[in-house]
């Protein structure tokens, strides 16, 4: 049989598994975000013990990601009372619709639940704004009206 038709192992033909990419910038977290990271690590450690060899590799990969996120977590300072900042809940009007979001860290973000990361373009546009201020967004100078700001 020709060498071209022999395969030494299945491992040779698998796609390489890279580490889970880390979001760029500082790893700011709320107290809730820090607790969520700890919960994720505990759940993955429990899953690791029960996993088969194939699953263990993937779980270990995610465990490295979350342990890195815990090690680099920076608890954000208390936000100012009258300014859109990390750790605030903001009500605003965009395109005639009133919306409300919480500004949180990258790992805590859940857009469907109204939790946006501080690195999201919409949030970056509003950072530093105060109540009743109009903010430029998406090419319009007065696209966003800040209605109310409160701590999370």
Helix content: 25-40%
User: Compute the gyration radius: what is it?
Assistant: 22 Å
User: Segments where pLDDT lies below 50 for 5+ residues?
Assistant: none
- DSSP strand count: 7
Estimate what percentage of residues fall within beta strands.
Answer: 25-35%
Q: What is the CATH T-level topology of the largest domain? A: Chitinase A, domain 3
| Major sheet | 5 strands, mixed
Strands side by side in the biggest sheet? 5-4-3-7-6
CATH superfamily annotation of the largest domain: Transcription elongation factor, GreA/GreB, C-terminal domain
What is the level 1 CATH name of the largest domain?
Alpha Beta
Q: Give the termini distance in whole angstroms.
A: 68 Å
Strand and helix order? EHHEEEEHEE
The name of the CATH architecture of the largest domain is Roll
How would you classify the helix and strand content by structural class? alpha/beta
Number of helices: 3
Globally, the shape reads: elongated
Average pLDDT for all residues = 90
Number of domains: 2
Organism: Sphingomonas dokdonensis
Pfam family, one: GreA_GreB
GO molecular function: DNA binding; translation elongation factor activity
Region (Disordered): 1-25
């Amino acid at each position: 049989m020709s060498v071209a038709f022999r395969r030494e192992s299945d491992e040779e033909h698998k796609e390489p598994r890279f580490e889970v990419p880390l979001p760029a910038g500082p790893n700011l977290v709320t107290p809730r975000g820090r607790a969520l990271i700890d919960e994720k690590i505990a759940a993955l450690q429990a899953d690791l013990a029960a996993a088969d060899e194939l699953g263990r590799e993937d779980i270990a990969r995610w465990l490295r990601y979350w342990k890195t996120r815990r090690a680099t977590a920076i608890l954000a300072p208390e936000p100012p009372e009258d300014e859109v900042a990390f750790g605030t809940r903001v009500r605003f009007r965009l395109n005639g619709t009133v919306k409300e979001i919480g500004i949180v860290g990258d790992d805590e973000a859940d857009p469907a639940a109204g939790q946006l990361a501080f690195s999201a373009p919409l949030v970056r546009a509003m950072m530093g704004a105060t109540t009743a201020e109009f903010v430029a967004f998406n090419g319009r100078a007065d696209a966003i009206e800040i209605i109310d700001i409160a701590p999370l």
